[in-house]
Amino acid sequence: MDLTLWNYQFRIIMLGDSTVGKSSMLKRYTEDRFLECINETVGVDFYVHFLEVEPGMMVKLQFWDTAGQERFRSVTRSYYRNSVGGMLVFDLGNRASFEHVREWYEEVCDHVMPHSMIFLLVGHKSDRESDGERTVSTVEAEKLAAQYGTPYVEASSKTGENIERCFEVLTRRIYQGLLSGEVRMREGWDGIKSSVLQAQQQLRSLQDTEQMQEKKTCC
């Protein structure tokens, strides 16, 4: 990918129990496809998408789709620190997955301290309401989101409802956080990257290499 095609890169990690539909959300968003059956994520999967947050400002989104099973936690924890955004996903028809959101949130915060991550809470599989399978109300989900200071969105990968909105809301919050200083680029951190800085680093690296070659030639 030509670095001039994007201005910033944001790394976002998908968080939540197994089977809440994290992979389905990413499939719908990046490929506009819905698959009834998706194999459970083993470890971490990667997705990439591009979003123009304002005219002329293109963001490359790199998504880390984490496995929700406990046996993979040691693997997924290693990715927390290099993420600037976290999408906390639960299944509106699975109350246990909603109750576990707090555990996911606290675990991530513990691992990224003293820095912070920008979150979005998502109630997934909103299509279940029409089938009478909903077990978590909008009111209690919004209450939890308010405790974390994060927006709340209900969405469905099956119907496509609000899927784009989920990713756009989180991306724009990260972008605004970058502009306001809430989040900052740090050396050695991959949560946010700037194509301009990368180009400058590549140029300096090239110049250093050329200088070394010149010194060897002189010797």
UniProtKB/TrEMBL annotation:
This protein's name: Uncharacterized protein
Signal sequence annotation: none
GO MF assignments: GTP binding; GTPase activity
Pfam families: Ras
Organism: Silurus meridionalis (Southern catfish)
Swiss-Prot/TrEMBL keywords: GTP-binding, Nucleotide-binding
Gene3D superfamilies documented for this protein: P-loop containing nucleotide triphosphate hydrolases
Family: Belongs to the small GTPase superfamily. Rab family.
